[in-house]
Amino acid sequence: MTANAAQGVLANDTDPDTDALHVSAVNGVVGNALTGAFGTLTLNANGSYSYSTAKGGSASQGLPQDNFTDTVDDGHGGTSTATLTVSVIGNGQTYVKGTDSNDTLSAGTKGTVLDGGNGNDTRKDADTFVFNPNFGKDVITDFKPNADHIQIDDTLFANFAAVKTHAAGDGQGNTLITYDANNTITLTGVVPSQLHANDFFFV
Fold first, then answer.
1. Pick from 41, 3, 2: which is nearest to 25 by CA?
2. What is the mean pLDDT of the chain?
3. Cα 153 from chain centroid (whole Å)
4. How far is CA 197 from CA 53, 147, 151, 168, in A?
5. Which residues sit opposite 66 in a β-bridge?
6. Among 9, 132, 176, 199, which is 20 to 30 Å from 15 by CA?
7. InterPro entries in the record, alphabetically (predicted)?
8. How far apart are CA 46 and CA 44, in angstroms?
9. DSSP label at 10?
10. How far are the Cα atoms of 7, 12, 157 from residue 26, in angstroms, in the given order?
11. 158-170: per-residue pLDDT in tens?
12. Containing H/E element for 162?
């Protein structure tokens, strides 16, 4: 996977003094290959980068994600840090990512990973549903217990017991999993007793 400077980590960065920005560090030295958990990243000063998955792929369950921390410098002493997350999908899988707005994400007939971003999304007909911090108020319309999977950042829920504590029926045959007032997951047509530990990944 490659991203040019226009698509890279500086694409949405601005400086209040209109100074030119460049990447000054990324878990080490800019421009050098950096080995992550599932592949190798090379991030350049202009924000462009390339990522190569490890030979043989990943044996990890769920959606493997490599996280790299980069530092942006304006050349006049101003710096900020950000995290670049690379999601690694398997052969034959499709990855669909939403925006920070309210999206409806649909999968195809094969294995699909749906990542809704930060908006309030509706997701349907998929296999793995990914929830990272600030995921919003999301609805999964066709979740199949013992078949589909929900992947949750473990800073939100550490394990299945934590999910069960925050899951409740809504009186209409659905399950509402509540992290807080702004972040909820609704499973349409699924009651809490149908959920099992093997339906969830915590990463």
1. 41
2. 75
3. 9
4. 29, 12, 12, 16
5. 86
6. 132
7. Serralysin-like_metalloprot_C, VCBS_dom
8. 5
9. T
10. 17, 17, 28
11. 999 999 999 999 9
12. helix 160-165
Would you place residue 58 in the very low, low, confident or very high pLDDT band (cuts 50, 70, 90)?
A: very low
Q: Among residues 144, 36, 26, which one has the least CA distance to residue 83?
A: 26
- Per-residue pLDDT tens digits for 112-160: 555 555 555 555 555 678 888 888 887 887 788 988 888 888 999 999 9
How far apart are the C-alpha atoms of 14 and 74, rounded to whole Å?
10
Query: In the Cβ-directed half-sphere of 100, how many Cα atoms lie within 13 Å?
Result: 2
Question: What span, in angstroms and rounded, lies between the C-alpha atoms of 57 and 189?
Answer: 35
3-state secondary structure of 104: strand
Look at residues 109, 89, 113 and name the one whose alpha carbon lies nearest to residue 38.
89
Instruction: Report the distance separating Cα 85 and Cα 155, nearest Å.
Output: 16
Length of the chain: 203
Instruction: Name the pairing type of β-strands 122-124 and 167-169.
Output: unpaired
What are the beta bridge partners of residue 185? 138, 177
Q: pLDDT value at position 4?
A: 65
Helix (H, G, I), strand (E, B) or coil at 164: helix
* DSSP bridge pairs for 35: 40
- Domain boundaries defined on the chain: 2-87, 94-202
